[in-house]
Specification:
One of its GO terms (biological process) is lipid metabolic process. With 218 residues, the chain is an alpha/beta fold. The protein is built from eight helices and nine strands. Strands 1-9-8-7-6-5-4-2-3 form a nine-stranded mixed sheet, covered by helices on one side.
Length: 218
């Protein structure tokens, strides 16, 4: 049973079957999407792969259950941000979801600014190498870049792999929401570890994505 439903979300819920299977345990999920030329959100982790699954069933399900969706948009860029915003607005209006019931994530923080300005909860995907693989100088440069992004107000949160958690907590020194994932960690393992319990108690850390493949992982 999920004792932290608002904080522990399901990672990579890229099939409707997985959503239905895990929905009672995890009311909030992360979904990978690619925005295609037909103006549809294609639910898939990889740009070169399609399962012909669109986002509408997810929005319909969440409308009924009051769940939330973390959308990892794989190909958000300056050239398609306006189209993506328009289609997202249509989905929100059609399925009567609030904009803050979505997390709009991308590694393109410049493009995310448009969504932030239009009332969406946005998160910059931190794609740096592991801290242990970086020199002190490189680490300082990474933190300085994140501080600049945060100070610019383009996004409302930072999202990053769990191995960046301690460094960002200790060095960022900015009042911005943090989101992370322990996608190789089960809920039980997270609850059993000292680090996991520390993360769950951290009020600045709003969401932790965890692994629960079930029978319909994609």
């Amino acid at each position: 049973m999920n004792d932290y439903p608002e904080k522990i979300w399901l990672h990579r819920c890229n099939s409707i079957e997985k959503l239905y299977e895990q929905g009672d345990e995890y009311p909030n999920v992360e979904v990978d999407v690619v925005f295609r030329k037909n103006r549809k959100f294609d639910v898939t982790h990889d740009v070169d792969t399609s399962f012909n699954l669109v986002l509408e069933p997810y929005f319909s399900y969440m409308n009924e259950t009051d769940g939330k969706i973390w959308l990892d948009i794989k190909n958000l860029k300056a050239g398609n941000k306006t189209e993506i915003l328009a289609e997202l607005n249509k989905l929100v209006e059609t399925y009567r979801m609030e904009k803050d019931e979505l997390i709009i994530e991308s590694s393109n923080w410049e493009a995310l600014r448009l969504f932030t300005e239009n009332g969406y909860y946005t998160s910059y995907y931190v794609a740096f190498d592991k801290p242990n693989d970086l020199s002190d100088r490189e680490l300082d440069a990474c933190i300085a870049e994140l501080q600049k992004i945060v100070d610019g107000g383009a996004v409302r949160a930072l999202s990053f792999p769990g191995w960046w958690y301690s460094v960002i907590k200790e060095e960022l020194n900015r009042p911005i929401d943090l989101l992370t994932w322990r996608h190789r960690t089960t809920q039980l393992a997270l609850l059993a570890s000292h680090k996991g319990r520390q993360m769950l108690k951290d009020p600045q850390l709003k969401v932790i994505l965890i692994k629960d493949k079930g029978d319909y992982h994609r």
